[in-house]
Amino acid sequence: MTLTTSASGIDKNLDAACASVTNELSRTDNKASLLLAFNGAVLAGLASLADKDLPPPTKMFGAAAVLALGAAAVLLLLVVRPRLSGADRASFPYWAQLEETAIRDCMQGDPRAARIRILSVLAVRKFQYLRRAVDCSLTALALLTLAAASLAL
Asked: Which of 1, 25, 30, 56 has the highest CB neighbour number within 10 Å of its CB?
């Protein structure tokens, strides 16, 4: 038995997939913004301790935490950094390089499948950066716990 999908079913699926991937991209930017604010607050708190006379182990763990938070911040900035490559043929950076007639020619076919692919690749890359940034932030929190514990010794 062969299942076929009607043209209207394919259209609905393509529209839903475009909306879903666009939503995922928005989620990465929101998460990155929240994490950037969190990491910034932690870094500001650590900066207020920079002139304090702390034991060497505490300074060592604190410095390592600052490096981890810095790495997380870089990764988070890569998440929110605009991607303006016009190499693909299904996005606004490409269309911005074209004349109106060339844009009309591009719209003769259905660009949704290409757009879904391009946006999906972008979303996966952003989520990978986001995941690494969370790992760095968690590492920083563990290092800060060690720094605080070394104060108690």
From this structure: 25
- Asked whether 137 and 69 are in contact (CB, 8 A), the reply is yes
108 DSSP assignment: T
Cβ 123 vs Cβ 52: under 8 Å: no
Contact in structure between 18 and 112 (CB atoms under 8 Å):
yes
Q: Report DSSP state, residue 52.
A: S
Which residues, at least 6 apart from 39, have a Cβ–Cβ distance to it below 8 Å?
69, 72, 73, 76, 137, 140
Whole-number Å distance between alpha carbons of 57 and 151: 8
Domain extent listing, the chain: 8-152
The one-digit pLDDT tens for each residue of the chain (153 residues) are 445 567 788 889 999 999 999 999 999 999 999 999 999 999 999 999 888 899 999 999 999 999 999 999 999 999 999 888 767 777 888 888 999 999 888 888 888 888 899 889 999 999 999 999 999 999 999 999 999 999 887
Contact status, residue 54 vs residue 105, Cβ threshold 8 Å: no
